[in-house]
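Q: For a teaching session next week I want to show students how multiple molecules come together into a single three-dimensional assembly. I've collected the sequence lines for a complex. Could you give me the predicted C-alpha cells for the whole thing so I can convert them for display?
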Amino acid sequence: MSLLQVRGISKSFRGLKAVSAASVEVAQGAIVALIGPNGAGKTTCFNMIAGAFPPDAGQIVFDGADIQGLRPDQVCVAGIGRTFQIVKPFAGLSVLDNVVVGALLREPHVPAARKSALAILEKLKLAAKKDLPASSLTLPDRKRLEVARALATRPRLLLLDEVMAGLRPTECDAMVEVFRELNRADGLTILLIEHVMRAVMALAQHVVVLHHGEVIAGGTPAEIVRNPAVLACYLGEETEI
Amino acid sequence: MNRRALALGALLLAVLLLLPAFAGSYALSVATLILYLAYAGQAWNVMMGFAGQLSLGHSLYVGVGAYASAALFYHLGIAPWAGVWLSIALCVALGAAIGFLAFRFGISGVYFALLTIAFAEFTRIGFDHMDWTGGPGGMFIKVAQRDSIDLLNFRGPPAMYYYAILFLALSALVFCNYLLKSKAGYYWQAIREDEEAAQALGINTFRWKMLAVMLSSAMTAVAGVFFAFYYNNLFPEQIFHISRSIEIILGPIIGGVGTLFGPILGAAVLTVLADAITEVLAAFGWEIPGIKQVFYGLVLLAVVTYLPNGIWPALARRIGVSK
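A: Of course. Below is the structure for the complete assembly, covering every listed component.
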C-alpha cells in the first residue's frame, strides 16, 4: 500500500508554472528518488508535501489522510520529516540541543529527549561533536545534523532534499549506508531529491524524473538511465561531469 | 553549574541580603533601581532573548500594570496583592492581542517591534485622556508613614521595597532558569534561531511565541505594580514613554541577550556607571542634562562593537563559570 500518494499537484509562482499536475507514489518501506535538472520543480514538490505552501491544485494523501494545506508542523506531527536543501541549523545551539529540539516532539521530557537525541547522533556519527555549536560544523556535518534533527521527530516518511550535495564520494557512500540501514532496520520510507547519481543508483528502488514541472518518466534506476527522454533532458549532461 | 559559580553566587546573595544593613539611603535607592531594571530586563529577555521576538514597547506592560493596581488602590482601596492579578490579567490580554495580530498576520522582525511601540504609544495617549486615572496630570498614591511596614498595602520603608524587588529579581532568575531548561526553552530558542526549521520539526510556532509574549507581559506587569507603589506617582508621559522601554532592554542587551545572568549584570553596570559619571561630573560643577543618555549610547556602541554577545558571556568565560 502507498504511504504517500501525490496526485496531480500544481503550483505557479506569478505565472511561472513551477509544477504542473505532478503525481508521485511512495510505497510503505520504499526508497524513491525524485530527480530532474535544476529548476525542474523538485524542491517545490517537497515544499508542498511538507506544508511550506499549499498546492494550487491536486491532492496529497499520507497514510490514508489528506494532508494538503496543513501547516509544516502538522505535517511533521503526522509523520513526515524533512531536511532543507539550504541547511538550517539552529546556529547558536549545540549539536546535541539541535537534535533535542526535534526529539521533544515525541519525548516531551527533556532528559528522555536528550537520550534519544544522543542515540541518533551516534547513528549519524556526530556524537563526538555533540557539544560544539552547530555554527562551527562543516557543510557535510551540517547536512548530517539536518538529517539527525529530522530523524529525531521519528518520521515514517523522510524527505531528503539534496543531502549528498557537497559530500566526497566516501562520505556519500557512508551516508547511503546510514539511509539503507534506517530503511532496512526501522522500516523508514524515504523520498529523496538528489543530483548525485552515485547515491540515487545505490539507494533508490524507484526513480521519478521531473522536467519543467512535469513528470516525464518513472521506473527503476536501471530503466531510467536508459530512457531516451530522460537522457535527452538530463542525464546526458549530468554524467559527463 | 560548577562549584566556583555556586560560591560566587552565594557571596553575591549574601551581600544583597545584608545590603540594607550598611548601605545609606542613596545606595539603597540605586540598588533598588538596579534590581527593578534587572527584573524587568529578565521579563523582556523571555520574549527577545529566548524566543527572538523583539519588543520595543515593554513600557506598555509596565504602565498598564502600574496604573491598574494603583487605580484600584486609589479609588477602591483594594490592596496591591489583590490588584496585581488585575494588572497581570490586563497585560497578558494586551500581550496576547499584540501577539495574535503579529503572529497571525506574519508581522515579524522590525515590523513587530514597530507594532509594540505603536501599542505603547496609543495607550499613552489613551491614558492622557482618561480622567479616572488622573489624565496627563498624573495619579498619586498617598505616601504613608515610612517607618512602619504595611505589607498588605505594600507601604513601608525603602528597605521593604528593596527586599520585595530583590525577591522578584531572584524569583525571575530561578523561573527563567527553569524555562530555559524546559521544553519551552528549547522550542523558543529553535524559533529564535530559525523559525522555518523549527516549524518543520513539528513546533507550532504561533502557540509558543504567544506563550513567550504572554509570560513576558505578565512578568512585566508585576514590575509595573512595584514601580507604582515604590515611586507613588504615575504620569502617562513618563511611564509609557519609549525611553522607559529602552531603559528596560539596555540591560539585557549590554549584559547578554538570551543569557540568564546578562540582564542582571547589564542593569547593574549601566546604573552604577551612569550614576557614578553623573556624580563625578557634578563634583566638578558640571550638570549636563542628558549625559546619562549619551553614556548609555556610548556603552551600547562599545558593547555592540567589541562584545556583540554582551558582557556576561565574556565575563563568565574569564572567571570560569558556566553561562
